[in-house]
Specification:
This is Poly(A) RNA polymerase mitochondrial-like central palm domain-containing protein. The chain has five helices and five strands, in the order E-E-H-E-E-E-H-H-H-H. The protein is of the alpha+beta class and about 190 residues long. The chain has two domains: about 10-95, Beta Polymerase, domain 2 (2-Layer Sandwich), CATH 3.30.460; about 100-190, no CATH class. Strand 4 and strand 5 (about 90-95) form a beta hairpin.
Length: about 190
Amino acid sequence: MSNDNGFPVVQAFGSFTMDLFTPKSDLDLSVNFSAEIEDQCPRKKKMKVVRKFAKVLYSLQRDGIYCGVLPVVSAKVPIVNVIDRGTGIECDVTVENKDGMTRSMIIKLISSLDERFQILSYLVKTWAKIHDVNSPTAQTMSSMSIISLVAFHLQKLNILTAFTMGSADPPSSNIARVLCLVKRWFRFRKC
């Protein structure tokens, strides 16, 4: 990811990048103005940018390109919901959502350890949707919370042992550390 030319970069994250999507999943996008993971954009600035995106998308909605444009600036992470009319894909557009991108990369790495993680994540997410407990706007669990609980459960059952090998510390949000643990796990399994 490079923003050297001064233009923002749009990056996908969430269920699509974690390989945990379904045909009804939305596409999570982050518009990033900085290539640095550590750079944090103030919430007020994110809200301002989301409102600007919403204005542009409203004009494109009038032209029939998009529908369902809905800015949600009061959310914990300000977003604009929008549906592409051509594909029917629903998108959640955020600004500088580095935390979401980092978590998605970590879950993708964890998913590569054992196929049971992905299968159980699908099952629990489906169960949660059926029972209406997978909607942060209704103050229930987010998909990321559900996936984290599945990872914790499998770790406690010693199925995701890569995060217990040689370390008493829980896995952090440090992608390099998680990648090192995953590589170590694959070397260990080959022995």
